[in-house]
Amino acid sequence: MAADDREIGRVPVEEVELVSTGLLSSYDRLRRRIVEALDRRGRLGRTLSEPLLLAPDLLVLLARLCMDRDVSPASRKLIVGALVYFVTPIDMLPEALLGVGGFLDDVVLASLVLSHSLNAELEPLAVKHWSGNQDLRIALADVSGAAATLLGVNLYGRLKSFLARRGVHVEDDA
Fold this sequence. Notes:
The protein has 174 residues and is an all-alpha fold.
């Protein structure tokens, strides 16, 4: 499809779809909530604040990939599962009880699923839909590499078992 065919007026179709689904406002609300919480709590350090600030970007990436017709059914199944986990209020670290710190398991799970799923077919689509400031592969590798530190060894083990039952096998760097 030509570039002009994918635009409505001067607004790209993807942005129209995001506005109509409310993703942009969800993105803004989530980012604002995280930034305000980080400001209230003072400096949590880069170890926690950087992964938490990826939460809105990962949420929107998962949603965009779910809507992209070029994503294979096998990849879409994993991505939809990660998105459902992300938006479910009761998970391993519930946001309702823990505030923004509860997004850490969502960020780790999304990073692990995306790292597992990125292949020659999905990577160009993921890069196209990525809104983050960092390189996507680097952001995913940073979170995946720090997952045990971010979640603690026990919770990280539970998350890995949860993913393994769904076909996502996580290799720990040794």
